[in-house]
Each structure stands twice: as structure tokens, then as C-alpha cells.
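Batch manifest, entry 17 of 40.
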Amino acid sequence: MLLSFRCSNYRSIRDEQELSMIAGPTRNLDNQVYTIKDGHGDSISVLKGALIFGANGSGKSNFFKALRFSTKLIIRDHPDFESTNYYVMDPSYARKPSSFEYEFEMKGHIYRYGFEIILSTKTVISEYLSEVFVNGDDLSIFIRGEKGGCVLDANKYDVEEASLFIHYGRREEFYKKAENTN
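Output type: C-alpha cells
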């Protein structure tokens, strides 16, 4: 279940924008929220649905294009995309990273996954996954930087290392560096 999605520097979106399904403290319509528990057993209320509205040209469609783009980038090895999908109103944003971050619940655990990519060069510069808890704690599962270095806590999670990384552009470099250090 998707809890939130954040993105920045994508098409008409310059600054970080967020869609959060986490319910606020007001409880007028309790039948419109769903309660989930994190890995510690603490609970959080999540909205069952959302409505997005705004003026024409305010970025609603581009926000969903960012969601679709980032999902395709995660799922496919080498998705085709235009290198001009950064915030085009300011040319300096061509050299700045675009960021995409998901928080989601899966099998009783809440995770945060995100990555940064320079769209003009199609270079993934960072990627991370952590388990998050309602109390604010977070447990890093892996962090990967631009130079290919990776911190992976495989002792806590049963994961295949090769399945963790966005394959776009850096996978082979990561394996070469891993072989050289072992």
C-alpha cells in the first residue's frame, strides 16, 4: 500500500511535492481511514482515498507522470525516457538531481525507497531503502552512492543484492568494484 510519494525537479515540478495518504489528527470520518501497524506493532492511520485538485497548469498531471516515470525506471532495466524531463524553466536544473521517494507498507512493515537521478545525463546518483517506524526510527537496508559504493545489511533481510539496484547505467560498475574489493 502506498503511503506517500515525493518528487522534485521533474517537468514542471521544481521543488519537492508530496502526496501523503497518512491521515491527520482530525477524526470526523473514521470510516475513511485504515489502520496499519509497523514492524514494532505501533499503528498509523492511512486514508482510503484521496482527491487532487488545482488550477489548470498547476502540475497535477506532471506529478502523476513523475510517479509513472519513477515506477517504470525501477521496474525496467533500461526504460526509454527523454533527458529533458527535468524542470525546464531554469536551465541550471539540467545539472541538478531529480529525486523520487516512496513510502509504502508491505507485509506488516513500512519502507522508504528513493533515488536521485540526473535526467539530462541519465545517471543514477543515489538509491536507498530503509524500514521506517511510526515512532520516527528508521533502519537502513541499503544505501548506494554515485561512485557505486553500497552499504547493505543483508543479515537483517533476505534479499538478493542484484535485485536492489536500479539497473540504469551503474550496475556493471558496482559489480566490478565489488569484485575488486573482495
